[in-house]
Amino acid sequence: MNPDLDLSLQRLIRAPRSTVWSAWTDAARLAQWFLPSPTIARVDRLEVRPGGALVTSMSDDGTVFVPHMDACFLVVEPGERLVFTNALDSTWRPTDPAPVPMTAEITFGEHPEGTQYGVLVRHGDPSARARHAELGFTEGWGGVTAQLARLVETIAGE
């Protein structure tokens, strides 16, 4: 991690790693937590493989959806790690995404109480990192991570 370029968060999720992984790789589950509530996510394409698409839309009213993310996976290590970037779209074309281009690395580690969940978001320069922080990285990514935890901890408790 480069503190001048990167943002990160860590969280213990009290659910099996396989359940947390499934919440990322199953489109129906991903749609349940991927955007801060009350905004609703729709997963338009989810191809969990290197070079595969991650395309989502979002809606504040549940009827009108607008583009949210058009990205591609760079690394997929089942049950261990996902890396995707929005600097390439789902057709591998270079993009200049708003609000910031980034590469996100999601890690799923073993923990005696469940899953050690990690997010590392890399930016190309300090101004992109600062902009992402100002836009609410901690609240946004932290909020959806809390939603993810609630979902998978509920599933694990059933």
UniProtKB/TrEMBL annotation:
Entry-linked InterPro entries: ASHA1/2-like_C, START-like_dom_sf
Pfam families: AHSA1
Activator of Hsp90 ATPase homologue 1/2-like C-terminal domain segment(s): 14-153
SUPFAM superfamilies (alphabetical): Bet v1-like
Protein family according to the UniProt entry: Belongs to the AHA1 family.
Name of protein: Uncharacterized protein YndB with AHSA1/START domain
Organism: Diaminobutyricimonas aerilata
